[in-house]
Structures are given as structure tokens and as C-alpha cells.
Amino acid sequence: MKFKRVMSLVMSAVLAVTLCGCNNNSSSDSSGLQSVSDNSGAQSADNSENTDNTPDSTPENAERNDPMNITSAKDLVAQMKVGWNLGNTMDATGGNGVDAETSWGNLLTSKYMIDVVSKSGFNVFRVPVSWGTHMDENYIVDEEWMNRVQEVVDYGYDNGMFVILNTHHEEWYMPKEEFVEEDLKQLEKLWEQIAERFKGYGERLIFEGVNEPRLREESAEWTGTAAARDIVNQYAETFVKTVRASGGNNAERALMITPYAASSSPENMKALKIPENAGNVIVSVHAYLPYSFALDTKGTDVYDPNNSEIPSLFKNIKSIFLDNDIPVIIGEFGSVNKNNTEDRVQCVTDYLTAAKELGVPCVWWDNGAVVTTGENFGLLNRRDLVWFNDDVVNAIMAAVG
Fold first, then answer.
1. Around Cβ 389, how many Cβ atoms within 10 Å?
2. Which of 13, 29, 275, 335 is deepest in the core (most CB within 10 A)?
3. Catalytic residue among 151, 170, 208, 212
4. Is 212 one of the annotated active-site residues of the chain?
5. Alpha-carbon gap, residue 199 to 183, rounded angstroms
6. What are residue 233's phi and psi, to 5 degrees?
7. Residue 372 — pLDDT band, cuts 50, 70, 90?
8. Which SS3 state, helix, strand or coil, does residue 191 take?
9. What is the pLDDT of residues 279-315, one digit of tens each?
10. CB–CB of 42/104 below 8 Å?
């Protein structure tokens, strides 16, 4: 999602449940792919009455030696139904240390939250994580942060979910020639550490190298350039080589790589190069469509089922990747709440029906926000452990069902 650093949200001790809104910023590329401002607002409340969420500095499952049961990424993706993103949480960049998790207004993540997500039918759990703000000058990740990330991963993994672990909101990689050498050095060092920590996990844990790598704040931010696309391919190559060399189950683990900016434009998808001898690889793209309805907060609240953006997306995914035996996951999708439940239900039904026909799992972006002036993608009421909009969730499950 598009990132713009904001100050940490100041929580009100008076309100038991509130939603905080920050500046909303969106950009688009020629495909309609949009960037969602990840700090647009969330619940701000203490969920201590539900559970003790104190991070465990020594996770019980620090050492695993699980078997790898799936032999291909294609087989793995075929078992996925639909997913949910823990947005604006482990990827938040305010606060200090593990306090970053709640610095954008969401609650401390609990096992109970992910239990609700799993029991409702979501079997993919994407965990966006910012690492750069938790690394020292030698690119060593803070141990307490790594432990907390593992604890959150385990909430989904121990529920039998497929878990996608990535790097998110990283300001240190910038696909320009003058930065590429250091970018690759830091990327390699980071994934050496992540791969080492999680090498004993089975095939249900998937690594995603980078999130929406792009020329941030530049005119070609979402469209890209040939030079930037080439560097993004270098990121993918370094990521894959580093993980594959790390031992354990990582030699066979499914790895997710993205086109420039995770863009769904044909030009950017076609420019993605699968690294040589990559093994089990999945391509991830992000697509909030139709843009004016799904993401643009100043756009329409009416869904037009005759809009061609959704059919075009899946037609391009099929011709570029699926027809070449490369599985695809839509790592982020959704529609903002504009008090238009009926239209959102129809949109998500059409979107996921088209995706299911091609065997493309989709992962809803949930940033916890529901009533702010920004991008309200929130589905899960993380305090009360219920869904804000049962109709949308029921439509999701009916479409993938």
C-alpha cells in the first residue's frame, strides 16, 4: 500500500472504541492499480478484557521441524480460498520497538482475532511487516521484534491457515541505479535472518520478498520505467537466491514475487522476470477495482457490473501468467466503505467469482478503518471480535465457497 509517514496516533483514554482518521493519499497507474494510504485510521481501544496480549519474547514454536507436504506452488495455491490482511499493524512505523504494532491506532494483535478470521472461512493470512525501522546499522533485526512477528505468524499458522510474511512500508529500497547495490545488500541480510528464523515451518508459510517496490514520490511512481523494472527484477533474484540458500524447508518453500509496484498493468506484469532456478514461485499483484468505486474516496459509491476493469484484470493475469503455468495471488484487494453495502456485495461477488474461475486467491486489505475520512477497508472489529459488515463477509464466503 502507498505509505506516507504520519505521527503515531494519540489514543484517547476516555473512548472505549473509536476510529481515528488521518490524511488520505492515493495514486494510480494506467491499469487502475491504486495505492492505499495505510495509516488512514483504525480502532483505538484496549482489548485486554478479551485476552492478555503481552508479546512473548520466547515464542513456544521458535524451533520447528515441520514436513513439506506440497511439491509445487500451483498445488499450494489451489488449496487457498480467500485471505485477510493484518493491515496497519505489524507494518506500522511509529512508536518504539514492539510498540510500533499499535502506533497507527489498531489494537495489539491477539490469537482471538485470528481465530475469528479463520473460523469465518478465511484460510490465507497475510502479515505485512515493516523491518527497516527495527534494524541496526548492520541490518540486524531487533530480536524482540522478530519474536513478536513470529508470535503473530503462529496465530495463523497454528490455525491451519496459509500465512504470507512480507516486507512492507520499507523506505530503504528504491529502484534507482544509485541505490541498487546497497538495497540488494540490505535485502539479502534481512532475508537471511527471516529465512533462518522460519526455516523449520512447513509449506503453509510463504515468503513475499518486497511490497510494491516503486519510485516513491516520483512522477513514474505507479507506471514505472524500464530501468526501475529491471531493478525490481534484481530484488526478486536476490530474495529468491537468499532464501533458497538458507537451508531447512526453504529450498522448497513457495516464494512470492511482484511486478514493479505490484502493478496489474500489462506492461509491468510482462516485465516481471522469474529468477532462474527459482523453484516454487507465486506472482502477487494488487488490484482495487473498479478504481473509482473500490478505492477512490472521491469517486462513485455505485458499482457498475458492466465495468470492464475486473474482466480485463483476470484476462491479463491468465494470458501473462496462468497460461505459462505460473500461479498468481492477488495480495491486496477490497472496496472502501461508502455506506453502500449492497453495491459492495455485488462488486466483491463479481470480483471473487472471476478469480475463482481461474484459481486465483485474493486477500482483502483490512486496515481496521470503518468511519474515517480516509480509506475505510475495515472488516474485522478487532475489539469486539465480530465483523463490522456481515453482508460483505458473507458475500466473500459465498463467492469462494
1. 17
2. 335
3. 212
4. yes
5. 23
6. -65, -35
7. confident
8. helix
9. 999 999 999 999 999 999 999 999 999 999 999 999 9
10. yes
